[in-house]
Amino acid sequence: MTQVVTGHGLDDLLTATGRHPFVRCEVTDDLAATWWSSSDAVAFQRTRKAVRRTVNVLGGDDGVTELLDHLPEIAAIVSPGRRAFSVSVPQHLEPRLRERYRVLDGGDWEWFHTTTAPARHPSHERVLALDDVARATEVRAFLEARSPTADTEPGQGERWFAVEDPDGSLSAVAAWGTTRGGAPHLSSVAVDTRLRGQGLGRTIVGAVTRRAVAEAGVCTLGMYSHNEVARSLYLSLGYDRLCAWSSRPVVIDL
User: Fold this and answer.
1) Can you list the alpha helix ranges (DSSP code H) found in 71-116?
2) Are residues 96 and 137 in the same domain?
3) Predicted TM-score (pTM) of this structure
4) For 125-172, what is each residue's pLDDT tens digit?
5) What range does the domain containing 133 cover?
6) Residue 112: pLDDT band by 50, 70, 90 thresholds?
7) CATH of the domain at 226
8) In the Cβ-directed half-sphere of 6, how many Cα atoms lie within 13 Å?
């Protein structure tokens, strides 16, 4: 059995992953203080909004499997004293996680990345900055009705954009936040269900992505895996789907 090695520091983690964009965008110095490697895979700490840290396991199938066997030791460092902690593995390896541990219900999601701005389109002129603080109640109601799984709330510091109807009501919205590593991150994309099929999703995602790439050279986003329409849209706008994760709470027997 290949030995699991403990690593320290973001520079070495980036080297071990070939400077993988997910690691570059989602992992900071403090999160990379301790990480683990085995053959061609790494396990590293990550968090977006929750205080509690999670562990992502990335790499070749054999290396990921070796690191899964090492989860009790990793959990003792990441979540000392807790019987369950969150683990994200490549979706096709989720059964191997279940073979080894008691796994609770979680979610399947995908992470996208682009450094290429979509082609400019005249419809992008319709996308305007939105005052999400002044219009917080309106935005929340729009998301609740059109995208109840949206994970970004207005008034939390993100930059919001919208397409409006002629009467000023919302037709589409999107939030521009940042990853832990400081990269633009697009979230809470929602379109009025009565207007779907008119290209508003393409308009707002394309326009905001163009702005993000122009400003920062990159844009990222995540989506739940069941949303095939969104996946097709993002791929057609030049995004690469670099990760498909299964995130699960894993019970560790102490």
Assistant:
1) 71-78, 94-100
2) no
3) 0.93
4) 999 999 999 999 999 999 999 998 888 999 999 999 999 999 999 999
5) 117-237
6) very high
7) 3.40.630.30
8) 8
